[in-house]
Amino acid sequence: MDLVMIETLALLIFGHALGDYPLQGSFLARAKDRTAPVEGVPWYHAMAAHSVIHGGLVGLITGSVVLGVCETVCHAAIDDAKCTGRVGLDQDQGLHIMCKLVWVAAIWAFGDVP
User: What is the pTM for the complete model shown?
Assistant: First the structure.
């Protein structure tokens, strides 16, 4: 793995922290939870918004729409598993970081991912 890949991974982890904390806020954190929905807000709208933020960050950092879409789908699935109690917070964060490792590995293995 070369320096560019390490830099990309660092930026992806930074983007994850940005998307999960300041860009999520308490509203999205509560509203995306289908087990305790916010009245008048469909949980799936909030989950989609939060996940698309993450996918957009991955797409911007990697230059790949495909990886951005993959991140959106994976982020939603992982967060739903957390909200429904199938994984805890530490597992949730670990799975998100593992996704970033997979995105960097895909770039390393295949070069530019569209």
Answer: 0.94
